[in-house]
User: Which sequence fits this backbone?
């Protein structure tokens, strides 16, 4: 079969790409041809279909003083006629058996659903975010969980200035959701794939096409994990000598919703426990300043690392801390740590508790509660036997939960119903 896979990028851009890359590989391994549909970018992987990608959009470079540019951005981010036209051209030269949609809001836009429907092409959509039911996409407003837009009351995004604390940005986000609700192109999708029980229940709670929602955990390519584990075992004698002084690690974007600030606050109670922070983001300088003021000399900001380097650090760690403060859809960082045989201390929020089983594969704490996090760190860090036991349980659990064979079998079952 020829399968159209649509995503806003065709290069590594986060958890959405981790999934897109893996599902593309799975489709090809099973004899299907994948036809990508994305946005042009110098970082994209080569594709013979790149000429059909939409032109690159960088909203950060838009002239904010120009009314014309502003209106163009609003229009493009809500309804892309370019995406429709480019897709029409692609469909004229390639017969598509079904389309697999991923992250398309703001760039490709749901406008392409109309084009696909007109051609009679079945559509499945893997949900990586909450945009259809939350204009802000994360259910976060000014640092706190917010569900005021329940029932399609998207005007709350404007009154609360949910989007970046900006009235104009919030107006655009709210308008986008109202337009898509009015046009109802979401109706054209045959099945929505929910990567976690939490996300499935949340969309169901918000009455978003409940009959089309299918809960199906992601798959994952564990090849790099296996290679990292082999390298880890080769140096095991050396690592065992330093087990008492192993660092704990945080891996992720340095944004407020990821909770790094809560972790730093918890670390004030543990001046002798080394913490390695891998990642970058808008909060980097603020977090570095906080660490300096509070003399957290045990904290190292390592910046952005390659996948291989990140896995090496996880392999050398005692455990991973995932202190997220938003409704995590899944979290591949947690998947990778557990697959490396490491327990995880995670927030009791979103899909994290589906992976971090409290007392079995790791420990849970209330999101944003630095005192409770400090207690959990103390409990796990000073018990090497517990780390080892939970690490083994974590590895076993994650391989059963996030499993490529199960995921592909689920997709096959869905496609048979199209």
Assistant:
């Amino acid at each position: 079969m020829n399968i159209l896979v649509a995503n806003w990028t065709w290069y590594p851009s986060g958890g959405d790409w981790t999934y897109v890359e893996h599902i593309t590989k799975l489709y090809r391994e099973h004899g299907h041809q994948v036809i990508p549909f994305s946005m042009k970018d110098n970082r994209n992987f080569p594709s013979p279909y790149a000429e059909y990608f939409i032109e690159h959009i960088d909203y950060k470079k838009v002239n904010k003083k120009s009314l014309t540019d502003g209106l163009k951005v609003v229009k493009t981010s809500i309804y892309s006629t370019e995406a429709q036209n480019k897709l029409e051209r692609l469909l004229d030269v390639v017969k598509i058996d079904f389309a697999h949609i991923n992250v398309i809001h703001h760039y490709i836009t749901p406008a392409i659903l109309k084009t696909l429907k007109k051609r009679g092409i079945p559509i499945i959509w893997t949900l990586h975010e909450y945009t259809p039911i939350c204009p802000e996409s994360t259910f976060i407003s000014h640092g706190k969980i917010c569900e005021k837009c329940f029932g399609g009351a998207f005007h709350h995004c404007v009154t609360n200035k949910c989007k970046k604390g900006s009235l104009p940005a919030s107006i655009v986000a709210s308008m986008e959701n109202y337009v898509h609700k009015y046009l109802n192109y979401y109706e054209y999708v045959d099945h929505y794939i929910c990567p976690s029980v939490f996300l499935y229940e949340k969309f169901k709670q918000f009455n978003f096409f409940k009959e089309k929602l299918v809960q199906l955990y992601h798959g994952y390519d564990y090849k790099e994990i296996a290679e990292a584990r082999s390298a880890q075992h080769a140096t095991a004698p050396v690592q065992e000598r330093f087990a008492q002084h192993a660092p704990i690690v945080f891996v992720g974007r340095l944004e407020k919703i990821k909770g790094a600030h809560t972790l730093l606050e918890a670390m004030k109670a543990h001046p002798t426990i080394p913490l390695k922070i891998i990642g970058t983001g808008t909060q980097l300088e603020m977090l570095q300043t906080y660490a300096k003021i509070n003399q957290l000399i045990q904290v190292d900001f390592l910046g952005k690392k390659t996948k291989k380097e990140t896995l090496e650090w996880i392999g050398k760690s005692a455990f991973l801390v995932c202190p997220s403060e938003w409704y995590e859809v899944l979290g591949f960082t947690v998947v990778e740590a557990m697959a490396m045989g490491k327990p995880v201390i995670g927030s009791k929020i979103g899909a994290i508790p589906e992976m971090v089983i409290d007392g079995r594969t790791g420990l849970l704490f209330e999101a944003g509660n630095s005192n409770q996090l400090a207690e959990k760190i103390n409990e796990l860090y000073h018990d090497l036997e517990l780390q080892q036991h939970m690490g083994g349980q974590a590895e076993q659990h994650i391989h059963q939960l996030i499993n490529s064979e199960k995921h592909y079998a689920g997709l096959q079952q869905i496609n048979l119903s199209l």
